[in-house]
Design goal:
Layout (H helix, E strand, L loop, with lengths): L1 H15 L35 H4 L7 H10 L15 E2 L21 E2 H12 L3 H12 L7 H5 L19 H17 L9 E6 L8 E6 L2 H9 L6 H5 L12 H13 L35
Helix pairs in contact: 3-4, 4-5, 4-7, 5-10, 7-8
Length: 298
């Protein structure tokens, strides 16, 4: 029975670990591509923007699959810049900074955007798709790339109340440091403004727009609020693909909406509850080993 149990569960893990990406469009990047609109405002829950199991699944997609996905997207550059599928940058090595932090990143000459997304995601234990959605949410870098968009790709070190810190400019710097920041939020959740539990979340950088309590249900959602500290108001939710009103903020709404359009429901768990928090990656730490492939001896 132990052997049978191990085979069945191993098969479940294999199937759950295979991310399904939309089929690529045959048209060349930079001209046309696919444009899905599948999100329903009735499904939006401010306390659960993305599941831990998806957010921390750093092995969800490989470089080739992600490259095919980028080529499938409609892309109309604003400036004389390449689409992400054609982007290249020489990147530095980043050292492993210790247990729980980001592992080593191995740089290279003329790395593609897909290599950078996958490399940074795997080094820091973040799903590379999180980083792809992030650059679209922050700079429309997948669909409408611009020179400024590549410079400030993830909005890292760009607070609402001050200028961006130029030390972090550049596509690779932005992507890697965003992944690093999400890892820091996960390692030190008690030191952050937004953590799991009921927290007041503003609707806008304008304090006059007020706030409302949100029951943040998992660490991945807390990470997104720490990165972009606003929730959408009802006007922004009602017009999911458009503009709300003067008190609307769109960042976390757009993260949820873009993920839904591109990759499906971001809140769906990969494993049933009875498999336990370790397999479900709650808290963002991997602890799967061969022990879990068979039940413990009685």
């Amino acid at each position: 029975m132990r052997r049978i149990w191990g085979i069945v569960l191993a098969g479940m893990l294999l199937l759950a670990g295979c991310a399904t990406l939309p089929a690529p469009d045959p048209q060349p990047t930079g001209r046309t591509g696919v444009d899905w609109r599948t999100a329903d405002s009735g499904d939006f829950r401010p306390g659960l923007l993305v599941s831990d199991a998806l957010f921390y699944d750093s092995g969800s997609v490989g470089v080739e699959d992600l490259q095919r996905f980028l080529r499938s997207r409609a892309c109309l550059p604003v400036d004389d810049v390449p689409c992400l599928a054609d982007y290249r940058e020489s990147t530095p090595d980043k050292a492993d900074v210790g247990p729980g932090h980001c592992a080593a990143y191995h740089g290279g000459t003329r790395q593609t955007a897909a290599q950078i997304f996958v490399g940074a995601g795997r080094a820091c234990g973040i799903d590379p798709r999180v980083l792809v959605v992030l650059v679209q949410k922050e700079q429309s870098l997948v669909s409408r790339p611009s020179a400024d968009g590549y410079t400030r790709a993830t909005g890292y070190a760009c607070p609402d109340t001050a200028d961006c810190d130029t030390r972090y400019f550049g596509f690779f710097n932005q992507v890697y440091n965003a992944a690093w920041q999400f890892r820091q939020y996960t390692l030190h959740p008690d030191e952050r403004r937004f953590e799991v539990g009921t927290v007041d979340v503003p609707f806008s950088p304008d304090g006059a727009c007020g706030s409302a309590p949100v029951e943040i249900r998992n660490q991945a959602t807390a990470n997104l609020y720490n990165y972009t500290p606003y929730q959408p108001n009802q006007a922004a939710i009602d017009d999911l693909y458009g503009d709300g009103d003067g008190c609307s903020a769109y960042g976390n709404r757009n993260f949820w909406r873009i993920w839904t359009d591109w990759f499906g429901d971001p809140t769906s768990p990969r494993f049933p509850v009875w498999l336990g928090s370790c397999l479900r990656q709650e808290g963002g730490e991997r602890c799967l080993d061969s022990y879990w492939l068979v039940p413990p001896p009685r």
